[in-house]
């Protein structure tokens, strides 16, 4: 089954650490990348060394190639990232990027429909794909000697997918059924879909669901998909990331042999709309008979690594952990330890193309009113904005956030997900390689400035409750 996910900032790295639990209503399906990060053993690196020591080069047709060599096991991970996700879906045609991901498994002039995955399985490997707002990725994990075969198959699929007309409508039905299972049958997913559409706007790239609106999925034509592929699936808009027991000289030769012949195409520009000045509504309250426990979510538009005041990006990361990153954080102390909530915290999604998001979330204990939860959260925010964070909180947050860095080094899936995710939104390799060092240099003044700008300044933000009961 192909996976539609929200690929978030540094998820793979943070998954290796003892980190916060993700919010019940914040960014559904976040954290799936963590499954690929199980460490083989703890690696040793000096404080000034890069996380992965990756090398990168560019082919004549514009394809960027990245190698993160890891010889701990005779295995290779092969990821092809396309810098196009649901954020590139045309207006009125939401869901094209995800629908195309499905159709890319329907064969080429050289490989029959469905044969790609059968070949990977025959070789003892695993393959899959995912779509996020910022990218689409296709990946395989195989015994290292089978890497050239994976490269040949993937390059062939990139250059000439068939998208057979006789399978097009059947796959549309698969996508619609996926939407029913993932969104429509899940009260929390339905609420989050409506929440995002209300906050950002139903046709804003952040307000549209990654899988698409049902009526717009039904309206996508095969020619729409062909045009989307022709525009965005250009070598210069793709990044190939390989990790594992692979030598640079071999990968250079195979990349030229298999990907080098893929024809170049014009450069792609990506235009992301700015956030609205204010949310469509200040609050969204919904009741659903399928919900047993109330959930609260508040989202603020925030600077990201690519939008707004980028200098606040790392400070916002620290702020989210300091404010709501599990035991010891301010929200946990005020709500969970005081018996008001079974879970509460904060999260920041900032390694994205365009505006980022800062979340507060809580699930009240039975008998605690929504008003009491919001009052407690507002008190935490007011105290932070009035008095600022402390140096001890800063050091604790940085120490805990970077604790997973060394553990992540050995996980085969961590490097391609972290490196490919950053490069696909235009960040340099160093944004990943030296992330722990950058985080360690964040100052108290930067964290307090980030709090004032995002949490203390009027802008696009909205609160929402999903409550038990009849609608």
From TrEMBL:
The record's listing under PROSITE patterns reads: INSULINASE (PS00143), TAT (PS51318)
The Swiss-Prot or TrEMBL record lists the needed cofactor(s) as: Zn(2+)
Source species, please?
Answer: Roseococcus suduntuyensis
Domain (Peptidase M16 N-terminal) ranges: 64-200
Could you identify this protein by its name? Answer: Zinc protease
Signal peptide residues on this chain, from the entry's feature table: 1-26
Residues forming the Peptidase M16 C-terminal domain are 220-400
Molecular function terms in GO for this entry?
metal ion binding; metalloendopeptidase activity
One Gene Ontology biological process: proteolysis
